[in-house]
Specification:
single chain; about 300 residues; alpha/beta; Rossmann fold; 6-stranded mixed beta sheet; 5-stranded antiparallel beta sheet; 15 strands; binds adenosine-5'-triphosphate
Length: about 300
């Protein structure tokens, strides 16, 4: 659905994005994450045809970036959306529906449905009098006014309270379930983890890691094992009547089992803990893929049973 080939953007000789190549399949949710200044917004704007790449190409649904038909198929949500403050949500959305040549009756129905799904209260207020969360909902409704197949959302829930954030993330997830292809950037990695099929991690203008969460975990994360013994074993901490030792390999699990057995006890539980996307991100962004997590000890334990 989206093909980005060797995308590069320079600002006065400074490379904001350096040769990104990736594709996003139809119906996929693709997350772009990275530290401030990594090149996420620049990438998203090139995908949406809003800025011209210095070199490389983008196509959406088979159309080149910037072509009229490509714009019809795409909805873009900028990081900060300038809204017309004196308008109500309804007038504002009708105005954009008109720009996209959406017939009036279709627009009226779409606006009503979208604002209801977004649970926008006080619709008759002027946009300038709305809260930040309400404004974001109006901006999201605007991105959907032409019923696009592809949505490009820059930080859709940034700076919003947890309730509104969850609502917007849920709503985005629902759009994906309805078949929209979504590319979005976010700093909250929990949200990315919860709704993305695949993720690209950018740093310094480059994609430095990519894949689904399992691939990223396997390539850039770690697995630790929290081994629960009935007796004290070396490097263990006492907890709830058991002794928990955190190790990084199955060999060490086995050694712990032997130590427990020699001390007249046994292993009663082994829990695995895999890196979260945040830990993978920190490893990749810091360039320290091999950083040990076991020194966080058993207190960090939160994994599933082995
Ligand atoms: N219009 C511009 N003129 C000059 N430099 C720019 C321009 N837009 C972006 N940059 C630079 O390009 C780099 C990438 O910026 P970009 O906004 O794409 O990063 P980002 O990953 O979206 O950051 P953030 O998470 O802070 O939003 C930064 O160093 C930024 O200063």
């Amino acid at each position: 659905m989206i093909e980005a080939r060797d995308l590069r953007k320079e600002y006065g000789g400074f490379p904001a994005v350096e040769g990104s190549t990736f594709s996003v399949e139809s119906g996929e949710v693709f997350g772009i994450i990275g530290p401030n200044g990594a090149g996420k917004t620049t990438t998203l704007k090139m995908l949406a045809g809003l800025i011209e790449p210095t070199s490389g190409s983008v196509s959406v649904a088979g159309y080149d970036a910037g072509e009229t038909e490509m714009r019809r198929r795409l909805g873009f949500l900028p990081e900060e959306s300038p809204l017309y403050e004196e308008m109500t949500a309804d007038t504002y959305l009708r105005f954009f529906a008109d720009l996209y040549d959406v017939p009036e009756d279709v627009a009226a129905r779409r606006i009503e449905e979208t604002l209801s799904e977004l649970d926008l209260q006080h619709r008759d207020r002027q946009i300038g009098d709305m809260s930040k969360g309400m404004k974001r909902k109006v901006a999201i409704a605007r991105s959907l006014i032409n019923d696009p197949d592809v949505l490009i959302y820059d930080e859709p829930a940034s700076g919003l309270d947890p309730l509104t954030t969850n609502y917007i993330i849920e709503f985005t997830s629902q759009l994906a379930a309805e078949g929209k292809t979504i590319v979005f950037s976010a700093h909250n990695l929990f949200h990315v983890e919860s709704i993305c099929d695949r993720v690209a991690i950018m740093n310094g203008g480059e994609i430095v890691a990519r894949g689904d969460l399992d691939q990223l975990q396997a390539e850039h994360g770690e697995t630790v094992y929290h081994v629960h013994a009935t007796v004290e074993v070396p490097d263990s901490v006492a907890r709830n009547g058991q002794y928990v030792r955190t190790v990084e390999s199955m060999d060490e699990v086995e050694a712990t089992r032997e130590a427990a057995s020699e001390a007249g006890g046994e292993i009663v539980d082994i829990r695995t803990e895999e890196s979260s996307l945040e830990e993978v991100f920190l490893n990749v962004a810091d360039g320290h893929d091999s950083r040990s997590r076991s020194d966080r000890g058993a207190d960090a334990e939160s994994g599933s049973e082995a």
